[in-house]
Each structure stands twice: as C-alpha cells, then as structure tokens.
Amino acid sequence: MDKPTLIYVYDPLCSWCYGFHPIMEKLQKRFLDQLNIRVIPGGLATDENAQPIGEGYSTIKDTLKQVENTTGISFGDNFRLLAEEGSYIYDSEPGCIAQTTINFLAPDYALDFAGILQHALFNDGKNLNHPDTFTELITEYDLTPENFLEHYHSDEIRAKTRRQFQWVQKQNASAFPSLLLEIGTDTGLMSKGFRPYDTLESHLHHLLRNLARMS
C-alpha cells in the first residue's frame, strides 16, 4: 500500500501557521518513512476580503501576542512596522499562487518554501504582493527566476490555486492551519487550528500503527 499523505493546509498570511511551521517540520522528520507531505495554500484573505493591513491591525496585534505566547515563535520588528504603517494590502492570492508554483515545479521543497515565505513576511516584513520577493526566496532551489515567473503568471497555476481554495472549503479545512490525512482514495480532516506537536505525533503514531496492523 502507498504511504498515507498528510496534507498541510495553510495560508502565507496566517500568523498561527507561522507558529505552526516548526511543528510541521518536526512531523515531517518524525514520519519521514511513513508519510508523504503535501502543502496546500488555503486563501485566507482574497477578493473582497483582501484589505489594507491597518484596517484589522488591532485584531492582528492581539493575535500576535497569542501566537507568541502559545508557540514560542517571535514576530520581527519589520513586520510590526509594516502592520503599524497600515497601507500594506493583506492579500493571500499572490503568496498562494507562489506556493502552488513551487508545489508544481519543486514539490520536494513545498514545506520548506512555506516556511521561507512566512518568515519573509512575519520576520522580515517583505512584500508578498510582488513577484520579485518570491524570486529572491528561491535562490537555493534548482529553479531560474524566469522559469518560476513563467509558471507563476500562467492562467493554469492561478486557476489551480483557485480550485484549491474551493477544495479547502469543501473539506471544512479553512481554519488554518488544518491537517488532513489521505489514505488511498479517502481523505479526512485530522485537525483544525493550532495543535501542539505531542498531540499530533501521538495521534499519527497510533493511527499509522493501526494501519500497519490492518495491511
């Protein structure tokens, strides 16, 4: 039987996902031989929900404290300055399209890129609405900026990203981060929202052990 796939649904603008990324890295390392990992960007703020960050900064500010206290991760001063200035448009679509592009061109780096993408925003205060930011972030991958941008700007990648947003909604996985488990042709929701590593590790360990007994 093929290995089950752990599907990580996140959004580049999700602060809880930024705090969750180290847990995903630990899960990937822990279950390297037992699970495949797939990363799907979910579309937190798109279309009419995309707005200047200043409009929701009071809520974001409270969330940052909660994320730091719960996960131990820190948000950079450059991001705080970006948020306080307020004019930056909080739009998930460009970052989600960048993630879909990497998923297609370099799937082995999908989780790594998700972390790099979020670090660029939440630590460095980089502009995730501009393609140049993404080409700066892929220098360690075996990709040329031209190849990345050709796919990033394609109708196919944009359409696929939009289909993923719809799929995430159908799976009831729009509380980011969410984890789904794909076993054969069946996909089920495993967790919604932030969960600590020990809880997820224990759940996956027992689940995979039971699957092994059944096979």
Q: Quick summary of this structure?
A:
The protein has 215 residues and is of the alpha+beta class.
3D structure, described in words:
The chain is α+β, with helices and mostly antiparallel strands and 215 residues long. Strand 5 and strand 6 form a beta hairpin. It has nine helices and six strands, in the order E-H-E-E-H-H-E-H-H-H-H-H-E-E-H. The longest helix has 18 residues. Helix 4 runs antiparallel to helix 5. The strands form two sheets. Strands 2-1-5-6 form a four-stranded mixed beta sheet, with helices on both faces. The relative contact order is 0.19. The chain has a single domain, classed as Glutaredoxin, CATH 3.40.30.
CATH topology: Glutaredoxin
Average pLDDT works out at: 95
SS content category: alpha+beta
User: What value does the Rg take, in angstroms?
Assistant: 17 Å
Number of helices: 9
Shape: globular
Strand order of the largest sheet: 2-1-5-6
How many β-strand stretches? 6
The CATH class is identified as Alpha Beta
Can you name the CATH architecture? 3-Layer(aba) Sandwich
Uncertain residue segments: none
For the sheet with most strands, the description reads: 4 strands, mixed
Range of strand content: 5-15%
CATH superfamily membership, which one?
A: Glutaredoxin
> Can you give the helix content as a percent range?
40-55%
Distance separating the two termini: 8 Å
Helices and strands, in order, run as EHEEHHEHHHHHEEH
Tally of structural domains: 1
Which features does this protein show?
single chain; alpha+beta; Glutaredoxin; two-stranded antiparallel ribbon
